[in-house]
UniProtKB/TrEMBL annotation:
UniProt organism field: Geobacillus proteiniphilus
Domain Transposase putative helix-turn-helix: residue ranges: 1-43
Protein name according to UniProt: Mobile element protein
Limits of the Probable transposase IS891/IS1136/IS1341 domain: 167-280
Matches recorded under Pfam families: HTH_OrfB_IS605 (PF12323), OrfB_IS605 (PF01385)
Length: 301
């Protein structure tokens, strides 16, 4: 089975520059071949496919030498993502692929782990250091051991400028101990969860806790000249508050869903149309703060 480990990365300024460059190159490759794919579909009635894009990428590197700087597997992975996006579109499970924007708050790229017959793998862990293609050894916050055969590493930069890595491994995951307990979950606002056993779990309301502080920071940002140094400082402060709220909420939901899954063999979650309910202006903010969809997703996984 596949399992992912997520850690905070601490690259040097040189490594951070190469990460940003790789993210930009992957975005360029994705957008470039999305445009060519769409043009081919309009001209000959079919798309290019991954292998055709891969051939054209080799030729494109001769024209644009700066595409040789980042890890080659990251560029190939961008093409695979494009191919999979079109597969989902034609299967009817997703909308048509869209061009990626450099203004998106979260940016990432994925590097594959190669295992040569001689020598070390391209991605490996040594203490609190992680070896990544082209980057070399990067310091990271190792909070637990990475167990299993490493398949790939996804490097992300969030809106606050922090870097994270998700290491995908292939490993055996032992099943949880069986139990004869079952539980039903009723989702709410005052109590985020009411169990069929009668237990009520209070809503932590992380958004409400930081609402005034966030509103003040947003007002400060609105009064600054967009693009200026003071505006950038204010934007970063707002982004950090959003990050803090999201981290607190995710931590709570993960702990709650883990507890419910470990204690019960069957978990039944109320199915709600969250988007329709959010049209109610008086409840929209509280519903968003509840993150019912995320809790249901965690319980399924």
């Amino acid at each position: 089975m596949h399992k992912a480990y997520r850690f905070r990365l601490y690259p040097t300024p040189t490594q951070a520059k190469l990460i940003n460059q790789t993210i930009g190159c992957c975005r360029f490759v994705y957008n470039h071949f999305l445009a060519e794919w769409n043009q081919a579909y309009e001209t000959i009635g079919r798309g290019l496919g991954y292998h055709e894009c891969s051939k054209r990428l080799t030729a494109l590197k001769q024209t644009l030498p700066w595409l040789k700087a980042p890890d080659s597997t990251a560029l190939q992975n961008a093409l695979q993502q494009l191919d999979e996006a079109f597969d989902r579109f034609f299967d009817g499970t997703a909308n048509a692929p869209r061009f990626k924007s450099k203004k998106h708050p979260n940016q990432s790229y994925t590097a594959q782990c190669n295992y040569p017959k001689k020598g070390r793998p391209s991605i490996e862990v040594d203490g609190h250091r992680l070896k990544l293609p082209k980057l070399g050894w990067v310091k990271f916050a190792k909070s637990r051991e990475v167990e299993g055969r490493i398949l790939s590493a996804t490097i992300r930069r969030n809106r606050t400028g922090k870097y994270f890595v998700s290491i995908l491994v292939e490993t055996e995951i032992p099943p949880l101990p069986a139990t004869d307990k079952q539980v039903g979950i009723d989702l709410g606002l005052k109590h985020i969860v009411v169990l069929s056993t009668g237990e009520k779990i209070e809503h932590p309301q992380y958004w409400r806790r930081y609402e005034e502080k966030l509103a003040y920071s947003q007002r400060v940002m609105a009064r600054r000249k967009p693009g200026g140094s003071n505006w950038q400082k204010a934007r970063l402060k707002v982004a950090r508050l959003h990050e803090k709220i999201a981290n607190c909420r995710n931590d709570f939901l993960h702990k709650l869903s883990t507890r419910l899954i470990r204690e019960n063999q069957v978990v039944c979650v109320e199915d709600l149309r969250v988007k329709s309910m959010q049209k109610n202006r008086k409840l929209a903010k509280s519903i968003s703060d509840s993150a019912w969809g995320a809790l249901s997703q965690h319980a399924r996984v």
